[in-house]
Design brief:
The complex is a heterodimer.
Chain A (H helix, E strand, L loop, with lengths): L2 E4 L2 E2 L2 E2 L1 H17 L3 E6 L15 E5 L6 H15 L3 E5 L4 H12 L2 E6 L9 E7 L4 E7 L4 E5 L14 E4 L9 E8 L13 E5 L10 H10 L2 E4 L1 H5 L20 E5 L5 H7 L4 E6 L12 E4 L2 H17 L1
Chain B lengths: L1 E5 L2 E3 L7 E2 L4 E2 L6 E3 L1 H18 L2 E7 L5 H10 L3 E6 L5 H12 L6 E5 L10 H9 L3 E11 L2 E8 L2 E8 L2 E5 L11 H9 L2 E5 L7 E7 L8 E2 L5 H11 L4
Parallel strand pairs in B: 1-6, 1-8, 6-7, 7-13, 8-12, 9-12
Antiparallel strand pairs in B: 2-5, 3-4, 9-10, 10-11
Helix pairs in contact in B: 2-5, 3-4
The chains are: A alpha/beta, B alpha/beta.
Chain lengths: ~325, ~250
Amino acid sequence: MSILVYAELKDGKGTKSAFEAVSYAKKASETVGGDVIAVTVGAINGDGGLGNYGASKVLNAAIDGADGGQMAKVVEAAMNQTGAGLLVASNDETGKVVAPRAAVRLNAGFVAGVTGVPDTSGGLTVSKGVFSGKATAKVQVDGDKKVIAIVPNSFGLHAGGSDAAVESISVDAGAAKITVKQFNPTSTDGSIPLPEADLVVSAGRGLKGPENWGMVEELARELGAATACSRPVSDIGWRPHHEHVGQTGIAIRPTLYIAIGISGAIQHLAGVNSSKVIVVVNKDPEAPFFKAADYGIVGDAFEVVPKLIEAVKGLKGN
Amino acid sequence: MKILVCISKAPDTTSRIAFTDGDTKFDENGVQFIVNPYDEWYALVRGLELKETLGGSVTTVTVGGADNDPVIRKALAIGADNAVRIDADPADSFDVASQIVSYAKDQGFDLVLTGKETINYNSGVTGALIAEMLDMPYVALATKLDVDGGTATITREVPGGTEVVEVATPVVLSAAKGMAEQRIPNMRGIMAARTKPLEVVAGVPSTGQTSIVSYALPPAKGDVKLVDAENVAELVRLLHEEAKVI
């Protein structure tokens, strides 16, 4: 049985989350079996880059400005057309709408927030993050149809496939019920969106004021990293809400998280402790964050960070 | 305007997480339960603000046993008019949504608000499930909501930024940070909450097709490797050569 992937397109090309969902499905197909077929909505350029990550076929519904309800109808039609038993989607902003809506339409067993490839030894089980990063759960998925939505950055990208065949799929998805009036990009300077970032530089109250973020931004720029912050810093308005990582902000899973002047309260750790490598810079050697860190520097951020920038520049220059 | 706010019980954000019964059950011993922060701070408070300016009512709905009543009373103390508890032990998000829909389907709500996710299961999908079951539009991760006549204008988080969207009510949405500011219940609210209606209705048969087999805590971290503040270049070398992350 095939595995279907809902793959989000932006400017005709798959998003990073879409590539990750396809990579995940390709890996899952090794145990679950079957081909990986991607379903897309909107204008597509070639195969959208999806074949490279393991899709053997891409279905495309040419609906402009589709809302989540319409996308779910396309996914339902693609599931029925391909006879797929498993749908994989990213649990990103769009996947959080499309996957559950499709699950209802398919009356499927549905798990969102999945972080590991399926285990097929006894039925289908997946692991999922629970308690805001403080634990994981093994979840058994039953039902004739199954839908799983994977956490962005939990699996990574695995390229190396060839171009996929693109077929159009015609679906009566009705009219859009949601009208988009305006899009405001998070940044206009080309910096990296936080949820997708592999490298993240984050800072907290230890920086003493918003005027001191220049060095944080410079370090992020030198590394090619996104910037983030702790909750107090976003609450008092030093940094925008969308940069707040932690239990009540966003949870991220970068390969490198550098925390500067953040003490490491349990709520903050919950949002970042799935990072592969954590570096903590704090002048307080008793800061709880050091217990969760892989590398640490006990020192004043205003002295350490400029040196860090120079050292990174030195590395990149080589 | 008739507003429904979905309220879930969650362990306090500072709770130590542990499991019992062979790692199959969350250990509630010594855990303080609160209203799930996204449900309370953003969904409930924005619902109350809209009611205060536009008129109407705010009803909360919770799926679960009588152990949920204290957090339901808290929501009433903050200002909800009445509460409904659906007496069921839900299997998963799909089941929670089915239970809520079984109650909400013929009540004529104009707005159904949820928090963006619970802090114990973190799925963030109950609102979308409800919307599809009710055949309503759904807007996820809303940070701003205004309603004028039958039109809701909503700002939502999307990949790479935010969008302003318009949608005709009734609509379901999930509320994220920025939607409203936390309200602390006052003594009058707490007193009034004791006598506000909390209706208990029977659940419907479970629709969940998933089950939690076991829980696990993350593997313990090794000791932190400290680098001298005078030798910052060594940290960069370690990140490049040992951790291989830059």
